[in-house]
Design goal:
By secondary structure, this protein is an alpha+beta fold. It is built from 5 helices and 5 strands; from the N terminus they run H-H-H-E-E-H-E-E-H-E. The strands form 2 sheets. The protein has a 3-stranded mixed sheet with strand order 3-4-5, with helices on one face. Strands 1-2 form a two-stranded antiparallel ribbon.
Length: about 180
């Protein structure tokens, strides 16, 4: 829900709350019936009341349209085939990326972050690499492997694969003396 929709909904709820409060006070005779009758008579002759009524009507229509508007699927990639809808979850996509990177030497650890766009998927990989490996070559291998594997196995179009080398792993070999 974007900020404009939030503002419209907030305004609408304030107006409805005020009207509900006034209607709730009517049986308690806190607000006199003469005041309400004169208010209704005055509003029938007032252009501002008509404008206000149309604004509330427009807000109602906006809220109803947003109820039926199709939301983007946030938990994965959704596509329609001739047999029905195909949904591949983000966890499944991350597993596919992990599989594609398992044979690349030079990676110690990595984390995968996904950002689905309208037509394509953007991938961010934060990696810890071993020293003594050519980092630009390693990053190119990671990008190529990720993109080709996802596009060939899952048929998910990939917009870009960003690789952030977070850290260089320290040598963990123990020396024997």
């Amino acid at each position: 829900m974007n900020s404009l929709n939030k503002f419209v909904l907030f305004f609408y709820l304030v107006v409805i709350s005020i009207l509900a409060f006034i209607i709730g006070l009517m049986p308690l005779n806190i607000i006199s019936n003469d005041f309400i009758i004169s208010f209704v008579k005055d509003t029938t002759k007032n252009l501002y009341a008509t404008i206000f009524a149309f604004i509330v009507l427009a807000i109602n229509l906006i809220i109803m349209l947003n109820l039926f508007k199709k939301e983007n699927f946030k938990l994965g990639v959704s596509r329609y085939t001739s047999e029905g809808e195909l949904i591949i979850s983000n966890e499944a996509i991350k597993s596919l990326i992990s599989k594609s990177l398992s044979d690349i030497k030079g990676l110690k650890e990595f984390k995968v972050f996904l950002k689905p766009n309208k037509d394509k998927l953007s991938v961010l990989i934060k990696a810890i690499v071993f020293p003594d490996y050519n980092i630009p070559n390693l990053v190119f291998q990671v990008q190529t492997a990720t993109k080709t594997y996802l596009e060939s196995i899952a048929e998910i179009p990939v917009a870009e694969v960003k690789v952030v080398v977070d850290e260089i792993a320290s040598n963990t070999k123990l020396r024997m003396e």
